[in-house]
Each structure stands twice: as C-alpha cells, then as structure tokens.
Amino acid sequence: MFVNSDPRTTTVGEATDGLQAVELCEELKPDVVLMDIQMPKMNGIEATAEITKSQEESKVLALTVFTSEPHVVSILQAGASGFLVKDTTPEQLVQSIVDIHDGKAVLSAEISSQLISAVRSQPHGNAAQRLEEANQHLDVDVTERELSILQLLAKGMSNAEMAEALNLAEGTIKANFGRIMSKMEARDRVQVLIRATKLGVISLD
User: Can you give the pTM of this predicted structure?
Assistant: First the structure.
C-alpha cells in the first residue's frame, strides 16, 4: 500500500517465502527487492545471496525487526544494498527504495561501524585465497580524494555531508563514487564499504 501510493514506486510482485522470492526475481527482474530475514523454506539472507548473484539489475533492501550485528552484517555481506527496521515510517520506506535504486546506501553510521568491525574480524581464508583476492585489485589506484570519501563513507555520511566536510560540490562527490565503484567492481556503496575494508583501504580510525 505504501509503495503503490507513491508515484515513483510500484509493486510488481509479492513472495511468501525466500524460495518464491528468488523465483519471482528471475521472472520479474524488479529494480528493488524488499527482503525480510525470517522466512520459511529459505531465509532472507540466503535469498539475498541468490538474487544478487543471479540478478545484477535487482538491488535488495532488507526490512526486518532484527537489528543485532550478526543479522545486519550477514544480509549486507550477502549483497543487500541497505537495511531498515520495520518501524520505519512509510515516507522513509519509499524514499529508501528510491535511494537504493539511485545507487545510494541506506545505512546509519552505527550499522556502517558494525559492518566494518565484522569484516575486519573475519578470517579471510587460506593464503592462496587471500593472494587471489588481492591480485584481483592490484590495479586499483585510489586517489587521495577518493580515500577521503571512503573514510567519510565509513562514518555513515551522506553525499551532502561529505561535500560540506571536504568543501566540494555534491556532484563531485557523486562522480567520485562512480569511479570508486568501477575500480572496486562493486554494485553499490555497501559493497564498496565491504571490499575497501577487506583490502585495508579504510578503517574506523
């Protein structure tokens, strides 16, 4: 009802479980998927991983009552582009859908910190796996300005807040993010945050 009441958004399908969500995404190819974590047959984390792996055009926005670190981190690492709790207002919900579609990350500073801490504390596989992952990004040349933007992203700042902090135009911030996502081979800002943390490009310091 909330989604369909806004002229910018339309509901194209509804699923009662995670497995059906994956199947519908293959059929309907929605721009944004609102995903619950706790569902029968296949939970939202598993469904998110399947959708983001097979449907490049579909972005996932988690909408759930679970706010503990394991749930937040797991669904974001599975490929979700944002995380909302179910007491979000209708206006915030619709705006978040639009923001996710536009390539923005819907994350608070607290959730960004949780994500970075969890990624940094996780084992990164054996030496061969770590070397392979690093080699994939050896040609990534992050400029000083891009590094500053990544550090502000880690603090949960919006484009407008970054522009003010760095004394730059908001359009310049957006352009830099486009280049960063291309260099990191990331589909959105959440995945940039995860990959940059794994590579040691950014930290919470």
Answer: 0.64
